[in-house]
Amino acid sequence: MSSQSHELAVAADAALDGIRRIRESYRTELTLSETGIVTFVSEGIARVSGLPKVGYQELVQFENDVLGLVFDLEERGVSCVLLNDSSGLCAGTHVERTFRVMDVPVGERLLGRVITPTGLPLDDKGPLLASARMPVERLAPQIMDRAPVVTPLETGIKVVDALIPIGRGQRELILGDRQTGKTAIAIDVIANQKNKDVVCIYCAIGQRNASVARVVGALEQKGALDHTVVVVAEANEAPGMLYIAPYAATAIAEYFRDRGRHALVVYDDLTSHARAYRCLSLLLRRPPGREAFPGDIFYLHSRLLERATQLAPEFGGGSLTALPIIETEAQNLAAYIPTNLISITDGQLCVSPDLFRKGVLPAVDVGKSVSRVGGKAQLAAYRAVAGDLKLTYSQFEELETFSRFGARLDEQTHKNIEHGNRVRACLKQNELEPVTVIEQIIVLIALTEGLFDSVPLDLMKAAERHAQQAASKIVVALRRRILDGQPLSSADRTAILAVAADALADFRKSQ
């Protein structure tokens, strides 16, 4: 036998030995899987037969990597809500159970990212590295696990902090007609949480890509994107994706809340969310009710917003504040979805199109807006200087309406109208220009004491800016007492008033 033949024989024996070892080490593993077949496909939903043990809201996997959420359990099959593009699905397509519910990635590394409700990145910052995954649907904390709302959420918006305060753990509704500045208020609140140990989640539901890009750009410009997670369900997404978006955003916020931190969630907006759920319900042939919404539309939002709370110290002391946004039509607050959410939340900020057209921004209607728990969380200094401001402003609006009829006004009424004009001018504020607590306090004290009454209206903005700049002259001990929530003494009020009077001296002489 030649050497070449010998080498071939040795190689063949080695190959046979390798095959023999692999065969001997091979162990058959049987896997249990439940497979069904699609019987019907429509826009955003699919009906499946052959999954007898599938659970409600369980995630199922279709062919072509299409995900679905089990929504209806029926005798002859189940109905699923599709979460992504269903163009490749048809009758006869196979579907498998995943034996898990819908979840979303959570963790510190999500901060500064723009993601979908399923956890896919939408920015150009690489793959998403998450600490864990949490189910999007969770039970709200029990009553005994909660604590009273006692800590203010500083928004940096004067009209909100002074007149309609919001506390950490509160649910404050923002509602108004379209294009009246609702999102701008929410973005201002997010921007003001920089360096305040509050993690923010902005959830865009059915918004245009240009609108979302504008929000992300504004947050990045103000340096607020570092403490914010943006969850985006685009307007052209499947209705199922719009449906799960706010629940996914809440799950991300709960990760921080359960670890003793403070979180803020903005839902922009729940009108689109309700419409997406109505679309799914009608496709699933659920009985329609008022305005064609299904009967469980109230439960849809109540189980979402009840997850916002202030936890008791023994459970970490974290908080989750919710700012849902609702769009009204022709200022109709008695419509179905607005009334539902007004009854669920702890107050509302009503944005008026009339004020918006007049240039009174933010266009918050003080008379219709209310905060049911924020007053208990408001700093004591605010209560001392702004206690009667809301009543004074409401009376001014009535007098202003009356004066338009051409009636002759006495001197006191004229003074009240002039003072109200100064109040309105002080409550105006540009977008993304938050005002600190100390700056707000000095302006409010000067306002309530009438220091602005002798300032011409056209100089009010400059005078207010001077008063805010003078806030740095207040002694450090007094500023610390204000921020710690201690009440203002008469001496403290006098000291602040003296600083304000000195700052406004030139403006008061110029009349």
Low-confidence stretches: none
Query: Which fold does the CATH topology of the largest domain refer to?
Result: Rossmann fold
Assembly state (oligomeric): single chain
CATH superfamily grouping of the largest domain: P-loop containing nucleotide triphosphate hydrolases
Please give the CATH class of the largest domain. Alpha Beta
Using only C-alpha atoms, the radius of gyration works out to: 30 Å
Count up the helices.
18
Strand content: 15-25%
The CATH architecture of the largest domain comes to: 3-Layer(aba) Sandwich
Q: What's the N-to-C terminus distance?
A: 120 Å
Biggest sheet layout = 8 strands, mixed
Q: Please state the overall shape, judged from the principal axes of the Cα atoms.
A: elongated
Task: Estimate the mean pLDDT confidence.
Answer: 91
Task: Tell me the structural class.
Answer: alpha/beta
Question: Helix fraction?
Answer: 25-40%
Number of strands: 16
